[in-house]
Design goal:
This protein is of the alpha+beta class. It has two domains: 243 residues, DD-peptidase/beta-lactamase superfamily (Beta-lactamase, 3-Layer(aba) Sandwich), CATH 3.40.710.10; 116 residues, no CATH class. It contains twelve helices and 19 strands. Strand 8 and strand 9 form a beta hairpin. Helix 2 packs across helix 7, helix 4 runs antiparallel to helix 5 and helix 5 crosses helix 6.
């Protein structure tokens, strides 16, 4: 078995081999098994990574999003079979791309509408289209055309984003394939539609305040911006240089910086409270925030064999996909020393988490790096974390 000294050595090695800095917290049934921070929050100033360091979450923002959605679901606010058009009427007449063997394509009406389940399982049929790239793919080309007025405007609300995307044809029939992307924007819109509140307010009321996540949010407050770790990019020569991401601008308060919905920032300790709540069946410090059976549904694989092929890669080996989360199906495929149906997600700058309800175990690891090299760092963290268990 591993011990805390082994994990210290592992994280220290990450930094010695070229990572700027990182943090890790492992908890089991409310007890902290490990918490450690190594390296620099900012190399130039010599500021070190600490418990107070704030990390960009990127796609790890999806775990709070889909947790909130499942909380609203278990309160009867919607059904997973509800058509998206019940909340966004402009989505009633969806269209899809039909590709032909000669390379041509036609646009035809979908056989059924997109429903909320399609959003939670990433099967709505639209990829991401955050920036103009001049793609020749018919779906992305159409999405870029839809987005052009908003990009020219420079800032836009989530509702405006959802409205213009209703004109884009889907890549396939809803529910037919797994495709990472715009499902999350629609899901965030559903949260706002059923609650009648901005998604940031719902996050605060349902998650951040009950879980005492005082350093987590979408827009800068207090001293968060000063505590944000520097995002580094590793050059081909192995040098770390400060990187610029347009997502940082979305954290600045004010409508002129709005761009759909801002991704979250958090600390390792803050985010660990959320993952520990999920690992403990919906309870935090004796208070129940969501039902255990709802979490069981959340971590149930929904992909068929063909969709699992679309989802699987070296990093996701052994995992399926549930309602907004990756969930472990085969330990051998990914050489995983954890538990079946352990679940979680990852963020594009290097953040990662896993919740294991059978063991009451939560693992939260963070760094901010481009490229994130997740396939190197995260499996090693996972192996060491499970090695702590007796």
């Amino acid at each position: 078995m591993s011990n805390v000294t082994d994990i210290d050595c592992l994280l220290r090695r990450f930094v010695e081999e070229g990572l700027s800095g990182c943090g890790l917290e492992i908890k089991q049934r409310g007890e902290t098994l490990y918490e450690g921070y190594f390296g620099f929050s900012d190399i130039a100033s010599g500021k070190k990574v600490s418990k107070a360091s704030v990390f960009r979450q990127a796609s790890l923002s999806k775990l709070p999003l889909y947790t909130v959605l499942m909380m609203l679901y278990e309160r009867g606010e919607f059904l997973l079979t509800d058509p998206v058009s019940d909340y966004f009427p402009e989505w009633k007449e969806s269209k899809r791309i039909v590709r032909h063997t000669d390379g041509s394509f036609t646009i035809q009406p979908t056989l059924r509408p997109i429903n909320i389940s399609d959003l939670l399982t990433m099967r709505c049929g639209l990829p991401y289209c955050n920036f103009p790239a001049g793609s020749e793919d018919p779906v992305l080309k159409a999405m870029e055309k839809c987005m052009k007025p908003l990009w020219e405007k420079g800032h836009y609300t989530l509702r405006e984003h959802i409205a213009v995307m209703a004109e884009a044809p889907l890549a396939f029939e809803p529910g037919e394939h797994w495709l990472y992307g715009f499902s999350s924007e629609l899901a965030a819109g559903i949260v706002e539609a059923v609650s009648g509140k901005a998604i940031e307010e719902v996050f605060r009321e349902l998650l951040f305040e009950p879980l005492e996540m005082e350093d987590t949010g979408a827009h800068y407050f207090r001293d968060i911006q000063e505590r944000m770790v520097t995002l580094y990019q590793r050059t081909e020569e192995g040098e770390l240089i400060p990187a610029v991401t347009p997502f940082d601008e979305k954290h600045i308060p004010g409508p002129e910086h709005q761009c759909g919905w801002a991704r979250l920032f958090s600390t390792v300790n803050d985010y660990s409270k959320l993952v520990q709540m999920l690992a403990n069946g919906g309870e935090y410090k004796g208070k129940r925030l969501m039902g255990r059976k709802t979490i069981d549904l959340m971590r149930t694989n929904v992909l068929n064999q063909e969709q699992l092929k679309e989802f699987s890669n070296g990093y996701n080996a052994g995992y399926g996909y549930g309602y907004g989360v990756r969930t472990l199906l085969y330990q051998g495929a990914g050489h995983h020393n954890g538990t079946l149906q352990a679940f979680g997600w990852t963020g594009g700058f290097g953040t990662w988490c896993e919740a294991d309800p059978e063991e009451g175990l939560s693992i939260v690891y963070m760094h901010n790096l481009i490229p994130s090299k997740e396939e190197y760092y995260h499996p090693r963290i996972r192996a060491a974390a499970y090695g702590l268990l007796r």
